[in-house]
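pls ignore typos typing on phone
guanosine-5',3'-tetraphosphate + seq
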Amino acid sequence: MGAVLAWRRCAPRTPLSADPREEAVRRRTFAIISHPDAGKTTLTEKFLLYAGAVVEAGAVKARGNRRRAHSDWMAMERERGISITSTVLQIPHAGHVLNLLDTPGHRDFSEDTYRVLAAADAAVMVLDVAKGVESQTRKLFEVCRARRMPVLTFLNKLDHPGRDPLELLDEIEQQIGLRPTPVTWPVGIPGDFRGVLDRRDGRFVRFTRTAGGATAALEQVLDPAAAEAEEGAAWKEAVEGCMLLDEVGATHDLDRFLAGDTSPLFVGSALTNFGVRHLLEALLELAPAPSGRVDASGAVRPLEAPFAGQVFKIQANMDPAHRDRMAFVRVCSGRFERGMTLVHGPTGRPFATKYAASVVADERSTLDEAFPGDVIGLVNAGDVRVGDTLYADDPVAFPPIAAFAPELFATLRPRSVGRHKQFRRGLDALDEEGVVQLLEDPDGLLPPLVGVVGQMQFEVALHRLAHEYGADADLSPAPYTEARLADPPTAAALRAVTGTRVVRRRDGAVVALFESPYWLERLEREHPEWQLTSVAPALAGSA
Ligand code: G4P
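k done
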């Protein structure tokens, strides 16, 4: 039995039509990718402000309390003042519905962060103008690239001293291979930012600060002559910059953007609200609406087909009193209605979506209906796993959501032999949820390893083993840094090689681990016959 809940609806919904195609056209389902501190939280808050979902920025997350203000149901989150889980924010705006999938905002990240991107149709990449492309942005962008997901770029913090925006364009292109095509260009320099030159009509949009950025920035639009008269050298420099962009062909092209080759770039300052409106409007105009998803047979499931959705994230024990397990489902086709009975694809069992009032936690509300692009939370999803399809009427399965290459490894051992059973049960559950990847010794002789993409996943695993399964465990880091899929002959050969280890994943894949990238390189050079393939972040995508 399941129940359905939605996350944090920010304003009353406009009346909906029942046609999934019409509803899909109104939707934009996207995620914000950024390195910590680039301004993702601030930008999210400003989207809410501009969408009219909050009257004053800061109402959603009070300053200084911002990281504690939401979804702190988990004891660890409360203790550490961070948000470990991802939530979904639905923002109705200008006749559209924006579904903002929030990737964890802490300094570390986990496989969940990647999986959330599997449910998005587009991403906004936020860069700090003083820092440019940073490590976490690069990692997350790789996932977007693997799915050829369209990415819009927001160059943030222009109110602050920073680097030359032209130099940053080069950096983006060189470091991540995405060609930025500025739609707006700064007038003034970082730290003395006056406004933007809108390359679409050549006009100057001047911004005026409002106190603390609490309300929308006042904007004044001037034609080029007036801009030159008032801004002088700053305007001329911006015009020259744009001429240079024209010359090198850094101009927005919808097809290339949708193919994931170029990225329309907007400049601004989320803190002072400068440029936020342009970005929000571009999301509605340029980002793709949900389209039919390719199913496991390669056929496109049309939007108007009966309801089907794919689970992209499982969160267990959100409410400790009820030991519930919530499956986050991205709607791929049809209309979801609360109370309908779905079929859980892999088991063929019915899955009821009745509302269960007893598990309502803070900031969750019931969801009555949902359409392609929306995310629904199904409670009591006991047998449901990441990648599973749920459907009504018409059977369908979507391709699995790929596992990611772990980058950190450790051995976990139960502290007490008497708790071994609970420990194994907990470890299996955490593996299924994707909290850690369990990597077993193929012969069962060595203790299993766990692999993660972020340190925090280890801490979450230890915490949950102790608190939910009563199995305190000790962690000893393992020295591996690289993981590759290995075919059987390669795996057999590797078992005799020092500085490597061969393990098996839950899905049966054989994974070879290496102590350093250099060691891996050397072995590959010496043994060109070995078949080692990357555990690439290839994800199930839309048509
Ligand atoms: P994140 O979610 O990407 O981690 O970043 P977040 O929005 O929390 O922003 C990180 C810091 O950068 C915050 O400062 C925030 O106020 C600041 N910031 C965000 N956008 C801008 C901008 O456009 N210009 C400038 N100058 N600063 C910006 P903080 O001191 O860490 O937090 P707080 O005390 O301001 O909340």
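The CA atoms of residues 438 and 506 lie 7 Å apart. The chain has a mean pLDDT of 83. more later
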